[in-house]
Amino acid sequence: MAGFVERNARKEVFSLKPYVPGKPIEEVERELGLKDIVKMASNENPLGPSPRAKEAVINVVEDLNIYPDSNCFYLKKKLAEKFGCSQDCFMIGNGSDELLRLITETFVQPSDEVIYGDPSFSEYEFMTRIMGGMVKPVPLQDFTYDLQAMKAAVTENTKIIYVCNPNNPTGTVVTRQQLERFMDGLDEDILVIFDEAYYEYVDDPGFQSGLEYLDRGYNVIVLRTFSKIYGLAGLRIGYGISTPEIVAAVNRVREPFNVNLVAQKAAVAALEDEEHLTRSREINRQGKEYLYRELQAIGLRYVPTQANFIFLDTGLDCRRVFQGLLMQGVITRTGDIFGYPTYIRVTIGTDEQNLRFISSLKRVLEG
């Protein structure tokens, strides 16, 4: 019957802006009939997963008829060893996205406010609106989180503050000094969530992880993921580190068996492969330096990055540039969805992928 959804669905549903993912390779193949396609849109590791993770996936195939461990015991054990804390400090999710949802379901009520930088990861707004919370985006300053402005935006209704560090889509970080000023005197009933999905790529000596504040007794959650440098985006697995009390509360709203067996096994194996992690960092460092040089030679402005992507100003309509690159089989991300209509975001790839991106970009800009 006409109007059923409008009459019966929760009103919060109509305020949601669906997440727009990077265009899949298969979709471009279907739409344009292209075969040789390079995806540089979603900040995936161009080297793929660790060889150990791939071996673990193969070895677990015979056990697919068995439910996974709902508690992710062995993964938590490995993480506890890595970070030197107890297993009950970890929450494991079907990607960091699910953890954002679980945290919001646990803590956000309709009268609560959630503060974050703008632009940043769109899921902060999405999850808040689902629960009927109020969003308070604070504009970036020089493409970086303006922590003092965010602190000034705090009211008695503020429940959560997100600090995406490094920030997506700009790749910038806030420093130790900035974080110290921000955290000093902040109401202890405000939950600060440090989203550190790109943490492993950071080489700025001024960077400080949110883990330090957890060690000092603050109410914080630090989110990490296996989707980026670990190359397991297709398996959807991420984790959060917090106090045992906060983790226990979030676990109350978690579905049983939320993390599949294959993802758990692959994640444990990936944590054991330091060689792959080191190689991934080095490939990213070399690719970043190459792209910086080439973009400077072209005369394009870009935001120096601490992640595995670069946010750059093409000087043209980003949709036009995106489409031009797409026709050459190179998938990037448009900046208009972040409020920057002439920018694109490009993932740092292998030498071959970076070279192809630059040559394709030159052709598009020459028009």
TrEMBL record:
Catalytic activity entry = L-histidinol phosphate + 2-oxoglutarate = 3-(imidazol-4-yl)-2-oxopropyl phosphate + L-glutamate
Which positions fall inside the Aminotransferase class I/classII large domain? 35-360
Example GO BP: L-histidine biosynthetic process
For activity, the cofactor(s) needed are: pyridoxal 5'-phosphate
Write out the pathway annotation from the protein's UniProt entry: Amino-acid biosynthesis; L-histidine biosynthesis; L-histidine from 5-phospho-alpha-D-ribose 1-diphosphate: step 7/9
Listed NCBIfam families: hisC
Q: Which PANTHER family does the UniProt record give?
A: HISTIDINOL-PHOSPHATE AMINOTRANSFERASE, HISTIDINOL-PHOSPHATE AMINOTRANSFERASE 2
**Could you identify this protein by its name?**
Histidinol-phosphate aminotransferase
The source organism is Syntrophothermus lipocalidus (strain DSM 12680 / TGB-C1)
